[in-house]
Amino acid sequence: MSADTSQPDRAGLARLVDHTLLKPEATADDVAALVAEGVALGVYSVCVSPSMLPLDAGGLKVATVCGFPSGKHHSDVKAAEAARSVADGADEVDMVIDVGAARAGRFADVQADIAAVRAAVPAPLVLKVIIESAALDDDQVVAVCRAAEAAGADFVKTSTGFHPAGGASVHAVELMARTVGGRLGVKASGGVRTTADALAMVRAGATRLGLSGTAAVLSGLGGDAGSSDAAPPVPPVAGAGY
């Protein structure tokens, strides 16, 4: 899962995207529009709330979230939620750690929490671990990434996009990528709104991007941002999770 720091073209960038809709008020029609737009844009996956599963994603991978957005759930509850999502057809699960445990230095507890969800999301299904990097200091980011790797995660991920401390930063992505050393993927999410933002994250080491305004991000690389008969884009919304 090593990072490719060369600048991708439009299609290459699209293939890094989890096209995301996590608004609490999202409807089935909103999700259908998300899927149609994602297919037209050529993204890797669509990421939706677990209650929106099962989902016909038009051939795209299906991602969902677990313990979202606070992470302050018992590990067995997170594991049960993840298991239900897998039974409902999820290919990938993005879980939120207990950020308070990380801030308190309880990294063994963080690792155990991740391991519980990993057991419910067996390979080759993909587990991403949302660390809420903006709420942690650098030492805590490194320790949580190491805990995620020890627990068998496939990716570490910056943010839910809901935390008041903020979303992804180039610094956090660089630190996370350096810590996992290509052994895990790195997903940048939260506040990545422009082409420049997305390319900066890729240069920093991101191997996946969580975007809600995907069409706008891709449009900066030229080409058609989607076919003319595609569903209208789902606009990015403050607090939408990405």
TrEMBL record:
Write the record's keywords in alphabetical order, separated by commas: Cytoplasm, Lyase, Schiff base
Any idea which GO molecular function terms this record carries?
A: deoxyribose-phosphate aldolase activity
- The superkingdom listed in its UniProt entry is Bacteria
Q: Which Pfam families match?
A: DeoC
Catalytic reaction annotation: 2-deoxy-D-ribose 5-phosphate = D-glyceraldehyde 3-phosphate + acetaldehyde
Main localization is cytoplasm
Any Gene Ontology CC annotation: cytoplasm
- The entry's active site is 94, 157, 187
Give the EC number(s) under which this enzyme is classified.
4.1.2.4
From the UniProt record, give the pathway where this protein acts.
Answer: Carbohydrate degradation; 2-deoxy-D-ribose 1-phosphate degradation; D-glyceraldehyde 3-phosphate and acetaldehyde from 2-deoxy-alpha-D-ribose 1-phosphate: step 2/2
Record's subcellular location: Cytoplasm
Q: Which InterPro entries match?
A: Aldolase_TIM (IPR013785), DeoC (IPR011343), DeoC/FbaB/LacD_aldolase (IPR002915), DeoC_typeI (IPR028581)
Q: Name one GO biological process term.
A: carbohydrate catabolic process
Q: Which Gene3D superfamilies match?
A: Aldolase class I (3.20.20.70)
Give the family per the record: Belongs to the DeoC/FbaB aldolase family. DeoC type 1 subfamily.
Function as written in the Swiss-Prot or TrEMBL entry? Catalyzes a reversible aldol reaction between acetaldehyde and D-glyceraldehyde 3-phosphate to generate 2-deoxy-D-ribose 5-phosphate.
Please name the HAMAP family in this protein's record: DeoC_type1
Q: What is this protein called in UniProt?
A: Deoxyribose-phosphate aldolase
